[in-house]
Amino acid sequence: MNNFRKLKIWQNSVQFATEIYKMTNSYPSLEQCGLVSQIRRSVVSISSNIAEGAGRKGSKEFCYFLRIAYGSACEVETQLIISKNLEFIQKNQFDELFQMCDEIQKMIYTLQRNLSEE
User: Fold this and answer.
1) How far is the C-alpha of 101 from the C-alpha of 80, rounded, in Å?
2) How much is the pLDDT for 3?
3) Per-residue pLDDT tens for 44-100?
4) Is the dihedral of CA 23, 24, 27, 29 positive or negative?
5) 6-36 residues labelled b (16+ CB within 10 A) or e (exposed)
6) Minimal CB count within 10 Å: which of 46, 57, 74, 76?
7) Homologous superfamily of 4-23+30-116 in CATH?
8) pLDDT band with cut points at 50, 70 and 90 for residue 1
9) Are 50 and 13 in contact (CB under 8 A)?
10) pTM of the predicted model, to two decimals?
11) How many Å apart are CA 50 and CA 112, to the nearest integer?
12) Which of 100, 78, 111, 113 is nearest to 15 (CA)?
């Protein structure tokens, strides 16, 4: 699987990262080295690990990187909840991003399961 750019899961993950970056532009400046940095690193890790895994030579290796991507998605989910609790984002924005994150988690799980069955 060399062309990761064709994977819907990778495309969705990149779009999710783009939305997270836009969202965090409005965070307080005190959070630039804290929550903003952490959520941005976590969200970029999702698509990056999908791409890296797809570039490996076997399904077993791809599954390993998908597990890392799933963990990063869980990190982002946690950071979104913290952002909502601190009132850095509105409920409607949280709901939209939380749904995107949930969908990506489901896609990762399904792809990983399908690759494991090969």
Assistant:
1) 10
2) 87
3) 999 999 999 999 988 999 999 999 999 999 999 999 999 999 999 999 999 999 999
4) negative
5) ebebbebbbebbeebeebbeebeeebeeebb
6) 57
7) 23S rRNA-intervening sequence (1.20.1440.60)
8) low
9) yes
10) 0.94
11) 11
12) 100
Q: Token pair of 6, please? A: 């064709």
The per-residue pLDDT for 116 is: 87
Distance CA(101)–CA(17), nearest Å, equals 10
pLDDT at 2: 66
Using CA atoms, how far apart are residues 110 and 104, in angstroms rounded to an integer?
10
Q: What angle do CA 82, 49, 14 make, to 5 degrees?
A: 65
